[in-house]
Each structure stands twice: as C-alpha cells, then as structure tokens.
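Why should sequence recovery work at all? Because a backbone constrains its sequence more than one might expect. Tight turns favour small or flexible residues, buried strands favour hydrophobic ones, and helices have their own preferences. The token representation captures these environments compactly. In the example below, the structure is given first.
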C-alpha cells in the first residue's frame, strides 16, 4: 500500500529545491527564501510523522484482520466439533429409543452406557418428565434445558471475537488511508514551494507560499484529529 512521501523523499525534494531556487535580491527576497526554507522544513517533519502513522496503522490493520481470520477458523473448528457431538448424541439416543420400542432392557442399558456424561444429565432430566405418559413432555433429551454442548458457546464467543477483530482491522485501515491522503496534500505543498522557487516575481512566490501554508495548516489540523500511531 503506498504511504505518500517518505522522509528520504522529502529530504531529496528539499535538496532539489535548493538547486532549483531562483535567487532574488532585496530584503523581501530574503524573507521569501527564509519562509520557503521554513515551510519545507515543517513539511518534511509533518510528512515523516504522517508516513510513520500510516505505516503503523496499516500494520495494525493487517494484524487485526489476520487475527480475525485465525479466530474465525477456530470458531468453525469448534462449531464442527459441536455438530459432531450433537450427531453422536442423536445416534446413541436413537439406539436407546429403538431398544425401548422393542422393550429390550438389556440393549437399553448398553445404549445408555454409550451416552456422553453431559448428554446423560439431559437424558435423566427428560426421563424424569415421564415422557411415556406425559403428553406435554419434551420430545427428547436434546429439547431439555439441561442439554448443553460447551463447544457451541465456544464457537459463539470466537465468532464474536472474530467480528471485533474484523471491525478493528477495518477501522485501522481507514485511519491509515486518511494519513495517506494527508501525505498527498503535503506532497502538494512541496510541489507549490518547489515550483514557486523557479519564479523571480516575488508576488507569485508569496502567493504559492500562502497556498502551501494553508495546505500545511489544514494537514496538521487533520493529523491532530486522527488517532496517534498504535503502540
């Protein structure tokens, strides 16, 4: 991702400005040259800061998006485990129910031994509702409030964390883009001062200095409104 002018590029621009500058005589000419040098110095410092902040926020965005991807993978893994456990509980209950319909206590006992401990809690609670004679009883242990699979909660928490990482990554990317836009404006200041130094007409150089100064102030204001680089 481009990050505008680097400090090295700004320094080269400052050197080139010195070679291109058209000397002007008189006190007003000296004032213009000093103002141009000061403006270029301020732009160089501001570009360095803006480029550094853009790079830091760009890195922060990539790290957050990478964390979102890995967290989403973990969430999918937990969800897959939860589905497998749910299918296993259903298969063992079906085996028990088949034995129950055949009135075969021995096979019912064998099926119950295959129950997971967590499912056995829900199964016992379901049997306590007397489903054989109670028409309002839940259809099975999976419908009981005691039926709980920890991986389901884990998957939900990981999904939420992944969403938070994604949002943070997008916000960091937006801040990085804003800093890059600021460096583009600062590049405009360098251009104006550079082109202005080629004129011998003082009024033109004053005008370009004024426009460049306004752009620099606007850029500094925008920088102050942005969050600082992440630690």
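From this structural description, the recovered sequence reads:
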């Amino acid at each position: 991702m481009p990050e505008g002018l680097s400090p090295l590029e700004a320094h080269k621009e400052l050197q080139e400005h010195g070679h291109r500058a058209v000397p002007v005589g008189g006190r007003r000419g000296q004032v213009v040259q000093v103002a141009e040098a000061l403006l270029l110095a301020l732009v160089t410092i501001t570009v360095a800061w803006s480029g550094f902040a853009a790079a830091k926020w760009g890195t922060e965005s990539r790290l957050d998006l990478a964390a979102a991807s890995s967290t989403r993978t973990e969430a999918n893994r937990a969800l897959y485990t939860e589905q497998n456990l749910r299918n296993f509980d259903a298969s063992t209950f079906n085996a028990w129910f088949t034995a129950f319909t055949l009135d075969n206590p021995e096979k019912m006992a064998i099926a119950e031994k295959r129950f997971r401990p967590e499912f056995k809690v829900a199964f016992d609670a379901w049997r306590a509702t007397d489903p054989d004679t109670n028409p309002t009883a839940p259809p099975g242990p999976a419908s009981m409030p005691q039926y709980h699979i920890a991986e389901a909660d884990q998957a939900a928490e990981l999904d939420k964390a992944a969403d938070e990482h994604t949002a943070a990554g997008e916000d960091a990317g937006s801040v990085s883009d804003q800093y890059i836009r600021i460096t583009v404006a600062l590049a405009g200041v360098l251009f104006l001062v550079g082109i202005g130094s080629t004129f011998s007409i003082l009024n033109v150089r004053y005008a370009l200095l004024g426009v460049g100064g306004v752009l620099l102030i606007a850029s500094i204001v925008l920088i102050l409104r942005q969050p600082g680089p992440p630690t």
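A few observations help interpret the result. The two ends are 20 Å apart (CA to CA).
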